[in-house]
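Observation: inputs received (chain + FE2/S2 (inorganic) cluster).
Thought: call the complex predictor directly.
Action: predict_structure
Action Input:
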Amino acid sequence: MSSHADSSDAHHGEASEPERRTFLGQLSKVVMLGGLATSYGTCAYVGGRFLYPAKPARRAWVLVGEVKSFAQGGAKPFRTPSGSQLTIARQGAGESATDFIALSSICPHLGCRVNWEAQNARFFCPCHNGAFDASGKAIAGPPAEAGQSLARYPLEVRDGLLFIEVELDGLRRASGRGGEAS
Ligand code: FES
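Observation:
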C-alpha cells in the first residue's frame, strides 16, 4: 500500500517537474515583458514631456500704448512680458488694428535681429542678407530659401489704445527681481 503511494508520489513528482519548468518559463516571460512595457512606457512618458508642452501656452492681451504715439509709417521695438522681442509698425493711414503689424524682430534663420527699413518697406537681417516684406514674409536670403517668415502677433485697438496678444509662459523668469523673489 505504502509502496503504491510512494510510487504514485514519485510518479506525480516526475510529471509535475516539466510542468513547473514550463510554468516558471512562462512566468519569467510575463515578468520580462511587463518590465519592457514599463520601461518603454516610462521612456515614452519622459520623451513626450520634452516633445510636447506640459500645458498649452498661456496668452493674454497686453497694452502697447496709444495709437497716436505711433508716427504713420513708423515702427517701435516692443518686448513681451515673457521676453520675446518684436517690432510693431504703423503701416496704414487709419487708426484700426489692421493699420498696424506686430512681428518678431528675431530672424528665423539663425536668430539675428532684423531691422525695419522704411525706405525699402522691408525688414532686413544683416547677418546673411535675409529680407522680409512688410507683412513679415521672407523674400530674400536664407529665410526665403527655407520659407521661414517672421512670427506675427494679433493686435487690437480699443478706445484709441493698441493692445497685443502675447504668450505669458516664462513670465516669472523674465520679470526679474519680482519673479525671483516669490
Ligand atoms: S540670421 Fe538672418 S539671414 Fe541668417
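Thought: report the result.
Final Answer: The longest strand covers residues 59-66. Residues 59-181 form a domain with the Rieske Iron-sulfur Protein fold (CATH 2.102.10.10).
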